[in-house]
């Protein structure tokens, strides 16, 4: 039996349900061979401590946001920049094997990154001021996630780190002028639609959920069990696309119903925005990955 | 091992270790190490335990704890607090149980200066009890109100315990700080009401005496100079948090900074005040933070053993009204409060209580605020409420521990009534926080 | 032996001063941050994160000093009720267990620091700093605490102090 801990509890967060889907797949495909038992989420270990706890062997399987690995596996969330439908191209691909090696060096077995289709269920900016161009962000105060802070800074805005529980108050009282959030991930359950005017319909990065295992534990599994885990992951990556599409649709409908306005950018402005977003993140990866890794990942992520 | 075996192992070894008189923080640490050995496996587990020690206190959410402690320490050592009591005394005219009422009022005012019960009882006890003795007050009327007033320091913002509770429970520090205001004021009013009624019925326990009249001009001037400025600092802190202009961390740092400025303006900030104030604040902060280093590990191990989930299931399957469960949980806190110190109670109970409250669909803020009153009461519940011992240390020679217990009793009842009211009428706790977004 | 004790006391006092300075610095840094935001409409990055690190340093640098002052929270239900002789025995045993725990933590946390450095673990927040920066004070602080526990046991053994008559401050 493998013990699984995740960054968030099932049910509340659609991203957490990706982890649950993986567990269900493994338990169905692996009957009699391998089984995953869910231990808990942030009630068991603080989310930001979980990646190191996985390496330390406190539990065996983990799900959460890819960028939670940033501190432990430098560049471990680089599939955020992937142009492919399945961010890591799925088990067996060159890109997937690159990720496996990157994580293995730190004692982790990379299992997979499940996300929506390109531009679905990803990071968006929501604001209380109209935005027609990236220039409008200049010197605004924006709440960021670790992943989006590079973009916000590159856009000339002030980045403020706040936990999700503080976003409502900060938006309502103008402590921040906007914030980044993967909209599909239960945006309206936090009540933010009542204190936010605009959602900028400009998708950034891939978001989604990452699944990983303790490397020693993985090595101790039979090839048959390993195979089941990879099959389960492939199924989950397939399933995640529909799941995020459904949630994004649901969330934007609720946001509009609450009076929020969805702003679109012109194709030129959209292209500028995307360029700044991607370039700033690449610039960050250049500081944490050595030149050789960086070159091969750039090649892998632009191939095909 | 079954979850209940872990539970028994955790709590019995914790109790045993605490009995040896070792610091509570180290007892938690040892239990965590044993638990890690069983559950997280070897060195990897110990490694993780060390990381959890770091994560438990390296967060800006807890920064208001040392800030509020520093603020209170400077207020006391610079004599600002003492001046405020003197001003309050000038305003209080003829009234049944005058000095007892003054004790409550002073406790409430001191409560706005400090986040800890520290010193509040000690200060009021050493300044007011001799005076009460001289005026022929009965022990019940001299000691009781001072004990009760110490709790107000915990209940009226700023409150160190509220921040610890909120950060451990993972709920909004701002809402807990705002939510305890109404119960704090209610407690003060209920105590004053009790004192006046009792002293009117039984004038012999608090003989009336002539009060020297202070000219109105002098009263107003002293109020303006010595009462308004320090209280304004607290009002600024609360306003900043309430309106969201600043985070609780920023508001706390700002309030502490303004306290230093005020001490300078009063020309009271000399080297001795600085050394004593900062020194005692550092000591007290470390004392609280080091207990918190045991927190992450302890609640994680409870979660990992399955005990938290099993107890939650047990409680939700138990076919009684949720309110009964809330009452049972509060009774457990009352019981623990007789023996151990409040931060430790929070550490032990919150990891178990909070999942249950959430599973029952009750409001954690409401529950947390009720718990605050209960924890505040724990300072005066016999046999081991710490304020009781502070009182013993400074009360007149002929005072026995029994005198102190008896004096505390009516005020414990008042606290229990307040807790009952808060359970029955959630709007008492939720009205102010609900005005916040 | 006595000279050694004096040196140790000097170290504890020095670290206590550092802890106090950290406390005041935390306040000033946050005030400066508010001021910058108010007047220059631009905050300083990372003050909150640095404050978090300072909390760890303040706590672990000062912990042994607080123990020497008998300032930690203890439960004296049993020890307070015992007669002088048995009480000393219990307090000595408690101190020795405390010393054992702290020295063990010192050992394991030193290992944790080494592992963290070897793995190259970073804190992925506003300021990307090695996690070991946070952690390194834990072995130092718990080592000092362990030594102070041994000294506490010796004090109880010699009967230099009875359990403090002073009521302890509470939160
Ligand atoms: Na207070
Ligand atoms: Na008590």
TrEMBL record, chain B:
Membrane topology of this protein: Multi-pass membrane protein
Give all residue intervals belonging to the TRAP C4-dicarboxylate transport system permease DctM subunit domain.
13-427
UniProtKB keywords: Cell inner membrane, Cell membrane, Membrane, Transmembrane, Transmembrane helix, Transport
Q: Name one GO cellular component term.
A: plasma membrane
Q: What broad class describes the main subcellular location of this protein?
A: membrane
What are the recorded GO MF terms, alphabetically?
Answer: transmembrane transporter activity
Localization terms from the record:
Cell inner membrane
Question: Which Pfam families does UniProt cross-reference here?
Answer: DctM
Q: What does this protein do?
A: Part of the tripartite ATP-independent periplasmic (TRAP) transport system.
What family does the Swiss-Prot or TrEMBL record give for this protein? Belongs to the TRAP transporter large permease family.
Name listed for the protein in its UniProt record: TRAP transporter large permease protein
Please report the organism this UniProt entry assigns to the protein: Devosia limi DSM 17137
TrEMBL record, chain C:
Provide the GO MF annotations for this entry: transmembrane transporter activity
Q: Which GO terms describe its biological process?
A: C4-dicarboxylate transport
Q: Report the residue ranges that make up the Tripartite ATP-independent periplasmic transporters DctQ component domain in this protein.
A: 26-156
Give the highest taxon in the source lineage.
Bacteria
- Keywords associated with the record: Cell inner membrane, Cell membrane, Membrane, Transmembrane, Transmembrane helix, Transport
GO CC terms:
plasma membrane
Compartmental location: Cell inner membrane
Residue ranges annotated as transmembrane are 7-29, 49-68, 89-109, 129-150
Name the family: Belongs to the TRAP transporter small permease family.
Q: How does it assemble?
A: The complex comprises the extracytoplasmic solute receptor protein and the two transmembrane proteins.
| Function summary | Part of the tripartite ATP-independent periplasmic (TRAP) transport system.
What is this protein's name?
TRAP transporter small permease protein
